[in-house]
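Researcher: Please translate sequence to structure tokens.
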Amino acid sequence: MDQQLISDNPSRKARLPKKNNKLEKQQTAKNKYLEPEEYSRLLKELYRKDITLRYALACEFMLLNGCRIGELAGLTVSDYHKETRSLDIHTSFNRYIPENEGTKTVASYRTTYLTNREMEIIDQILELKKLSETANPNWYHSDKIFTTNTGKPIHSTILSASLQRANARLETPIDKHLSPHIFRHTTISILAENNVPLKTIMDRVGHADSEVTTSIYTHVTRSMKDQAVNVLDDVISNNLAPSLPLE
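Model: Translation complete:
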């Protein structure tokens, strides 16, 4: 219309649907992940007992990697490539289904690159696995990396129960719903707080589109807005303010 190519704009008759109010979801986003002080206390308690050592290692790995519990349980020795510091996440394990399933979505089918600590955890788990296979005649033999204390693939029920018991032993229990999935959300919050772009975070955790990921990212980055104000203040005071006329 500005260029006088058409006399009427048909889009004026269009009515867009109202956006859903996501304020409540954003307000509860902070309950979906653990703060550093919270996950530090929880992991420390899990590491304190030998019986929960494997579960502590699994939780810390999810915290760093961002994988789902089913993806963690589905990892095999052949998925770990130490020479290239990479891990193939191409399947998901469900203890109620005999065969491994594919990943939850196409975006979930991915290869992640490992931190030094992730590699240390896998190496420690594999060493524990080797010792158990030798010492325990009833050990359940499989090619899975993360297992229970009997050798069977780890699963959400047993890990959730271990988390909740560890939380109950804390002097000040964490007032949040604790399940393995909270570590995946914590990965998102850690990366968001350290200025990693949303697209990169979603690639890391295997999300093409996720309202939860976005709400956590938005909540965390909103709390960082003061940083932007401080940057602007510094720029003005260091570059422009000296040349401004005094009142």
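Researcher: Any highlights?
Model: The radius of gyration is 24 Å.
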